[in-house]
């Protein structure tokens, strides 16, 4: 596992965007490059950087297929807190050559949520799997909506949201946790782990405990993101603020090893 430590959130986002763009540009196969994407506050800076690079002609999304991590159950596309709305507002609407038919987001209004999830897994498989899955984590280390104690072999399915998650996300719902949907559709930890590469964004003091658990702790259902320790091509991109709980030796190790990578 690589841990890329950047001075601040802006530099972290720039590094992540440049890494993703480089992977897209290096993709020479006829089949599309398949990119997994998150929502939330963590990736917004990355989306801005990627959109700017696309508009400047530095990366094309014409041969990119995307699959989003999750969606609230019960929110229609036009709801300003649906993840369909979020992704178009923050990313897709700013790309010059993204094909609408290549955008895949779970339908939170599906009559049969379990069937929706089964078809989502099938569609991912139909493209040969995901090349790179970018994600962010919650303060409790959850990846997508895979809350603590979700199986590390889980597949896309219905998830019950914890009270803590609903409280954290209530800032987008007028600070009223009761307005936050109690359930969501989410890719599983197993779904993410099947990707050829995983890139997780972790920023801010409030994520410091989670970063320490994911990097220095053991693999545990309590911290579902810790599963990426078992992935051969996993990267954590973080900022200095998120490093407050890792040991000095760990901090120095990753700075040193990445310096050598650049030589």
Your description of this structure?
This protein is an alpha/beta fold and 263 residues long. The chain has one domain: Rossmann fold. 33% of the residues lie in helices and 17% in strands. It contains eight helices and ten strands. It has helices at residues 9-26, 44-55, 83-90, 113-126, 163-169, 189-193, 208-216, 248-262, and strands at 2-6, 33-37, 64-68, 70-72, 103-104, 132-136, 157-160, 183-186, 197-202, 234-239. Strands 1-10-9-6-2-3-5 form a seven-stranded parallel β-sheet, sandwiched between helices. It has a three-stranded antiparallel β-sheet with strand order 4-8-7. α1 crosses α2 (44-55). The chain is globular and about 50 Å long. The two termini are 19 Å apart. The relative contact order is 0.18. The mean pLDDT is 96.
């Amino acid at each position: 596992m690589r841990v890329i430590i950047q001075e601040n959130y802006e530099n972290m986002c720039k590094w992540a965007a440049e890494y993703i763009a480089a992977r897209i540009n290096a993709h020479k196969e006829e089949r599309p490059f398949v990119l997994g994407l998150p929502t939330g506050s963590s990736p917004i800076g990355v989306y801005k950087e990627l959109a700017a690079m696309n508009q400047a002609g530095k990366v094309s999304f014409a041969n990119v297929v995307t699959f989003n991590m999750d969606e609230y159950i019960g929110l229609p596309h036009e709801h300003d807190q649906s993840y369909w709305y979020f992704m178009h507002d923050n990313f897709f609407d700013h790309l010059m050559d993204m094909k609408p038919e290549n955008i895949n987001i779970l339908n939170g209004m599906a009559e049969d949520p379990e069937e929706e999830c089964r078809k989502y897994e099938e569609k991912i498989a139909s493209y040969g799997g995901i090349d790179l899955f970018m994600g962010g984590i919650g303060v409790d280390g959850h990846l997508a909506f895979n809350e603590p104690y979700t199986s590390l072999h889980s597949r896309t399915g219905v998830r019950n949201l914890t009270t803590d998650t609903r409280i954290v996300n209530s800032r987008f719902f007028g600070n009223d946790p009761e307005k936050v949907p109690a359930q969501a559709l989410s890719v599983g930890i197993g779904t993410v782990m099947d990707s050829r590469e995983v890139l997780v964004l972790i920023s801010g003091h409030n994520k410091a405990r989670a970063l320490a658990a994911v990097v220095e702790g053991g693999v545990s259902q309590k911290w579902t993101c810790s599963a990426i320790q078992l992935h051969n091509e996993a990267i954590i991109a973080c900022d200095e603020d998120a490093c407050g709980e890792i040991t000095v030796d760990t901090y120095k190790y990753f700075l040193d090893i990445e310096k050598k990578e650049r030589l």
